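Tokens in:
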């Protein structure tokens, strides 16, 4: 049986809209063999919907976790876990919304300063 390059087959299917039969022709194999090789890698409709709405879903889950937090839970590890979970979801939500954090901005400022110093030293 001919070897199917999984990465290339997946690229042809997802990014070039080739049929399984077309991909099979490229690899000199059947459309069934191609389908069997990459079917588990094809994003489902649910996965696409989740990806498109991930920031809002994470925001809602963050609210759900915070709603469970009360004074009793704060005193226990599970309450602590809820806070950590909410914080992680908050970070992920910010990433999904393309919002940066001060830490990233600080690193960028440091890199700019180093670059400017290098340029200044070259000019001297």
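Residues out:
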């Amino acid at each position: 049986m001919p070897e199917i390059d999984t990465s290339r087959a997946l690229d042809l299917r997802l990014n070039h809209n080739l049929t399984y039969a077309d991909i099979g022709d490229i690899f000199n194999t059947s459309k069934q063999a191609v389908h069997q090789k990459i079917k588990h890698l094809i994003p489902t409709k649910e996965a696409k919907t989740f990806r498109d709405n991930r920031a809002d879903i994470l925001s809602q889950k963050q609210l759900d976790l915070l709603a469970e937090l009360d004074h009793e839970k704060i005193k226990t590890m599970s309450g602590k876990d809820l806070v950590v979970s909410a914080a992680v979801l908050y970070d992920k939500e910010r990433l999904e919304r393309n919002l940066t954090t001060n830490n990233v901005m600080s690193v960028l400022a440091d890199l700019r300063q180093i670059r400017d110093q290098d340029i200044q030293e070259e000019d001297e």
